[in-house]
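Exercise 3.2. Students should predict the tertiary structure of the chain below and write it as structure tokens, then compare their answer with the key that follows.

Predict this chain's 3D structure.
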Amino acid sequence: MDIATLRMKVATNHFKRLLLGDRHEPGLHQENTTLNELAPRCKDVDITGKTWKSWFESPQIVPRIGTIRTLDELASCAVRIVSKRDGEEKALPTEFFSQLVHGGLVKKMMQASKSKHPLVALRDRAESYKPISALHLHLDAIEVSALSEGYGDIPWETVKRVGAERILNILTDRWSPRHGSIYSELSSELRLKWDAASPDERSEIRKTLARFRPDPFESILYARAIPNWNITGIDADISAQHIYKALFSLAADSKFLVADRLEAWSLDLATAALAMHALAWTDRFTTFDQPISDELIFWCAFDDLIFRSETIDIENRDFVGAMTCCDAEWSKESFAVFLSARKFYQEELHDLGTSMTEVADIAMQATKVHSLVLKN
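Answer key:
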């Protein structure tokens, strides 16, 4: 499988999952169920059963972007996303699926250009790229990790480095302790408590907060989610190059990583792992040779956690090595959080019609083309 096929597989399965919910069966076209669900909602959008089934056939042919835009049209009339933060129903962003299949960071970077300074243009295009969702960014990380070709006269190492650095910068914008945007998107402590409370418990919460003037219920309910930075030991000004360490260290705060927070963190943790590895591979004779680098230590832990099928335990040597490199206050609950992240990521990939094995096979293609043959 290549990245284009993976993108198509993820897009069609994700659409069907959003449309059918618990009735979604990964990898199967479910033609009758899907079209019956679409018919009353999308009367002005034409899609035949033959076309729909062809998107799930193997070997899969990736349709042109004009055809894939049909998915965006169907999504606009049939799909609504319920925000886990405030419970509001929202439509997907424009071109969500066409960009999932035919867009992405690598395609943006490698657009045709007449610039006399191609590297500057390449960097500018990368810097201007903004993913539509965390899923788009994750596919970007897989594609950048797999990247093994240059762009014109620009060598593959440089192109790969620019792409990996952009992904790490985006993750830093999301998760940085000082200015991370993700914390205002995640459930607050009161939201978690409220969602788990019975009607009587909710009434008691309202009565307690109503004693204050003005009533702080709304502001606390929609407050930013804030980790215990003292436990995580993360530097407030951590660099983008080391954001993967910050995401790893967040597992020290097991009380923070629950519900939607755990889900968001788990996917971005896998994204960070792939981006870190991609960047490290551009200088592989340094980062994956002696002396042992931080990148190698953390990659061994990420690889065990995310991309290998073997079970892992709390005494796993690779995990202990990565934990030792952090200033976090670790506990048994932290390891349980990592296992929860692994489970979520596995299930997420399964729902999207793929697997850790398929993702790893694609993402590690560059390591086969440009192998690590140690210098004498």
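Discussion points: The longest strand covers residues 81-82. The mean pLDDT is 93.
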